Amino acid sequence: MDTDLSLDERKLRTTEKQQLSKKLKINNVDFTVACKIIKLGDIKFITFPGELVSKFGIELKKKNKDLTTIIIGYADDYQGYFVEAEEYGKCYETIATNTPKGITEKLIGKLEELI
């Protein structure tokens, strides 16, 4: 163990190691995601079952310039972090999530078709 690290850095390394070890034991992931789009007058609500990075929230809002769009995370379920594919392996969220790489872009694309 590196004694030059702070307590927080050691805790983060331990957590990352645990999460990666857990991922290596998973053979198959059933990844069903359900979102809802609810329109109430000039407001559109989009529910999302996890934590969506802001880049995608901004994209969804840009598709609805005529309406106020509110994205509600952690709604109806929790499927983890939804991060852009190019960030995988660079941050804690991509290590801790069960969201497969590239799925977020596909999901946002489907939502954009619906809104």
Q: What can you see in these coordinates?
A:
There is one protein chain. The longest helix has 18 residues, at 7-24. This protein is an alpha/beta fold and 115 residues long. The chain has four helices and five strands. The protein is elongated, with a radius of gyration of 17 Å. It has one domain. The strands form two sheets. Strands 1-2-4 form a three-stranded mixed sheet, covered by helices on one side. The protein has a two-stranded parallel ribbon with strand order 3-5. A hairpin with a 2-residue loop joins β1 and β2.
Care to give the gist of this entry?
With 115 residues, this protein is an alpha/beta fold.
Order of helices and strands: HEEEHEEHH
Return residue spans where pLDDT drops below 50 for at least 5 consecutive residues: none
Structural class: alpha/beta
Helix content: 25-40%
Main sheet: strands, sense, barrel: 3 strands, mixed
> How far apart are the first and last residues' alpha carbons, in Å?
50 Å
Tally of structural domains: 1
Shape type:
elongated
Instruction: Give, in spatial order, the strands making up the sheet with the most strands.
Output: 1-2-4
Average pLDDT figure: 85
How many whole angstroms does the radius of gyration measure?
A: 17 Å
Please indicate the percent range of residues in DSSP E strands (runs of 2 or more). 15-25%
Number of strands: 5
Total helices: the number is: 4
Give the arrangement of secondary structure elements.
Elements: H1 7-24, E1 36-40, E2 43-47, E3 51-52, H2 54-62, E4 68-72, E5 81-82, H3 92-96, H4 103-114
Parallel strand pairs: 2-4, 3-5
Antiparallel strand pairs: 1-2
